[in-house]
Design a protein that fits this description.
Layout lengths: L13 H19 L25 E6 L2 H16 L13 E4 L6 H16 L11 E5 L11 E6 L6 H14 L1
Parallel strand pairs: 1-3, 1-4, 2-3
């Protein structure tokens, strides 16, 4: 059973939750970073176009089991729910889990669509968007989202190649 860790004890989700909290902080920081001020020699300009390529940052967090994905997505949503003024649902502040569970194929498709929704809507978020996807063995193929710019790894990794081909590669390929 993938819910059990060593010697039948429940898995400790605290390290994964720590990764998720850092991902949340990074998304929040990117949302709230200003462009800054103009250079001093441009301060006299009354009207100037400032290019802004900002978009709602999205993230992928990889975990090692279906139960870990579901549990972590629920814990992230519980955390976001505690401060909806800071993390408004209409801005896509929610997490979904995505994995290869056959009986959950419709749920998985719905989760993937929630995560891609903002991009498909030209950068507009709503309460059906999910900016965080918690995935099991699915980041190497098929989950492109150009707004995904943050990757978290909340599992043991066998080699650096696994990270490069998985979450880092996903960011590059999206």
């Amino acid at each position: 059973d993938d819910e059990l860790g060593v010697d039948g004890y429940s898995k400790n989700m605290k390290p994964a939750l720590s990764v998720a909290e850092e991902v949340i902080m990074e998304i929040y920081q990117r949302d709230n970073d200003g462009i800054g001020s103009l250079a001093p020699h441009r301060s006299h300009v009354e009207s100037i176009a400032i290019p802004d390529l900002r978009y709602p940052a999205h993230a992928v967090i990889t975990v090692d089991s279906i139960s870990a994905a579901d549990s972590l997505a629920n814990q992230i949503n519980d955390k976001l729910e505690t401060d909806r003024r800071k993390y408004p649902k209409k801005s896509g502040w929610q997490a979904v889990s995505f994995h290869s569970g056959e009986e959950l194929s419709k749920v998985n498709e719905s989760a993937l669509e929630s995560w891609r929704r903002c991009y498909k809507n030209g950068g507009d978020t709503d309460d059906k968007c999910a900016r965080i996807i918690v995935a099991v063995d699915k980041v190497k193929e098929g989950i492109n989202n150009p707004y995904c710019c943050i990757a978290g790894v909340a599992k043991s990794v066998g080699s650096i190649i696994e990270i490069v081909q998985g979450p880092i590669g996903r960011l590059i390929r999206s």
